[in-house]
Amino acid sequence: MTLVGVRAEVENYDHWNGQFRTHGELFQKQKVAIAHMGHTDENKVLVVFETSDFDTFMEIFTSQSTIDAMSNDGIVEGSVEVFILNDSYRP
What we know:
The protein is α+β, with helices and mostly antiparallel strands. The chain has a domain at 2-39 and 53-75. It contains 4 helices and 4 strands. A 4-stranded antiparallel sheet has the order 2-3-1-4. The longest helix has 10 residues, at 64-73. The mean pLDDT is 96.
């Protein structure tokens, strides 16, 4: 399982959160098992996706349909950052 973190700024958290939850079919195509979400008061969001197929995840993530969905969800253009969580530390 690969963990992918996606950080972005959104125009309105409540709108984004409602819209995000309508993309279940898209996430299934990306082989996402679960998405962990959090946000700040400044409308910045972080989602950590657990995917079983990183290549398929990224292919769909960079597709026009995903770009259109992000725009509809109110993600601020140019604010998306992607992180591959490939290291861990257990104190």
